């Protein structure tokens, strides 16, 4: 949510000499994680800023490839991302329609929860949770999310609108992850609890009003999400092809202190670092650092604004509209981005997500030069029709596109 709430975006792409004489606000940088050289690699939704990328470029100046395997606790994967909102059914319904991620589980009045309404959407390993408070005076013991506070949720929505409250990681042991994090300097948000059925749960502060949530559970559990949630069957749901979270990006006022804090308590290593010369344009600037766990399957980029550019930094704009640090965009992977885009664009005018304007036609002349031996002419033409951005490095071809902001801010 790059000038506002979270976007859904794919991988980083890279700025270079632009074929567009009117440079757009910002180009995110390309990750160097493993990607097979196929036209159906990750990319799906996104935004955070306009994407002025070109298909010809040099390596960024500060790509970090050394992996010290320094995690302070065993992190397995992203587990879910939770939005706090005023009405869970409405917010979840729009995301489900826009992303092809049907309702998979719920905890609300119908399940005996009188504290909060929560709806979980799934597509592959992608899990979005939407949570809203009920009226005051309810039985706190009925809540399925033990850390939930109705008063805090109302303040959060007033301050930030529709926004990410929790980035949840699946870890080997939630209590151990919490202990190791606090020993490493993390500010505790919610002490470990046993949810039953082998599920552990804990939270520490991440940045702003966002928490990093630790969830642990046995392999092969038949619990649809967390204990207290009931599964929902959607046999006729349409799958758009989204498969997992790739990265979740936070905007902060000052990068060095935020990165030191997060790296200090997680042990995550520096996956990549970019400055405004690498990432920004004459219009807007940012500095960015990507932190990764040992397996590099969990990526947590952090951005800070750079001041003194031709136009004010889009990161600073986010911080002001959002009301402080928060999740700027969410990158999701697709098994076939072209099919995903056809499905999503077909629903844009009916309440789905809108996308940023496509590059000028000249951009795709460059695509033919850098990827014409991998992408067929028909695929390149479809990329142009759908507005897909194309990038390539020694590890493969990346196809991606960015949504416009998915909320009012």
TrEMBL record:
Residues 1-54 are annotated as: Disordered. It holds the Pfam family Glyoxalase. Residues 41-54 have a biased composition (Low complexity). Keywords: Cytoplasm, Dioxygenase, Iron, Metal-binding, Oxidoreductase, Phenylalanine catabolism, Repeat, Tyrosine catabolism. It is an enzyme of class 1 (oxidoreductase). Signal peptide: none annotated. Belongs to the 4HPPD family. This is 4-hydroxyphenylpyruvate dioxygenase. The lineage of its organism: Eukaryota, Viridiplantae, Streptophyta, Embryophyta, Tracheophyta.
């Amino acid at each position: 949510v790059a000038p506002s709430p979270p976007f859904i975006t794919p991988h980083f792409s890279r700025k270079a000499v632009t074929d567009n004489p009117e440079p757009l606000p910002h180009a995110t940088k390309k990750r160097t994680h493993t990607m097979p050289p196929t036209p159906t690699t990750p990319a799906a939704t996104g935004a955070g800023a306009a994407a002025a990328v070109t298909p010809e470029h040099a390596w960024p100046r500060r790509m970090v490839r050394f992996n010290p395997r320094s995690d302070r606790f065993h992190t397995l994967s992203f587990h879910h991302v939770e939005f706090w909102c005023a009405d869970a059914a409405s917010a979840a319904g729009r995301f489900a329609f826009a992303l092809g991620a049907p309702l998979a589980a719920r905890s609300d009045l119908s399940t005996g929860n009188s504290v909060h309404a929560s709806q979980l959407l799934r597509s592959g390993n992608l899990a979005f949770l939407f949570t809203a408070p009920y009226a005051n005076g309810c039985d706190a013991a009925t809540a399925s999310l033990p850390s939930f506070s109705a008063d805090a949720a109302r303040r959060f929505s007033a301050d930030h609108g529709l926004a990410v409250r929790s980035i949840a990681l699946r870890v080997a042991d939630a209590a151990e992850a919490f202990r190791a994090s606090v020993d490493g300097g993390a500010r505790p948000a919610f002490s470990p609890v046993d949810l039953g059925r082998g599920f552990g749960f804990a939270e520490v502060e991440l940045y702003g009003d966002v928490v990093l949530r630790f969830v642990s559970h046995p392999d092969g559990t038949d619990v649809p999400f967390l204990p207290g949630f009931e599964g929902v069957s959607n046999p006729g749901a349409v799958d758009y092809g989204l498969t997992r979270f790739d990265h979740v990006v936070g905007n902060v006022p000052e990068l060095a202190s935020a990165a030191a804090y997060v790296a200090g308590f997680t042990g995550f290593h520096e996956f990549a670092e970019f400055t405004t010369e690498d990432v920004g344009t004459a219009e807007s600037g940012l500095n960015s650092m990507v932190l990764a766990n040992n397996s590099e399957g969990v990526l947590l980029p952090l951005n800070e604004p750079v001041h003194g550019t031709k136009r004010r930094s889009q990161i600073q704009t986010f911080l002001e509209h959002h009301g402080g640090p928060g999740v700027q965009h969410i990158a999701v992977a697709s098994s076939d981005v072209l099919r995903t885009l056809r499905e999503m664009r077909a629903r844009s005018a009916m309440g789905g997500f809108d996308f940023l304007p496509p590059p000028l036609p000249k951009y795709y002349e460059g695509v033919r030069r850098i990827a014409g031996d991998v992408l067929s002419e028909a695929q390149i033409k479809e990329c142009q029709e759908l507005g897909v951005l194309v990038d390539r490095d020694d590890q493969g071809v990346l196809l991606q596109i960015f949504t416009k902001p998915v909320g009012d801010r």
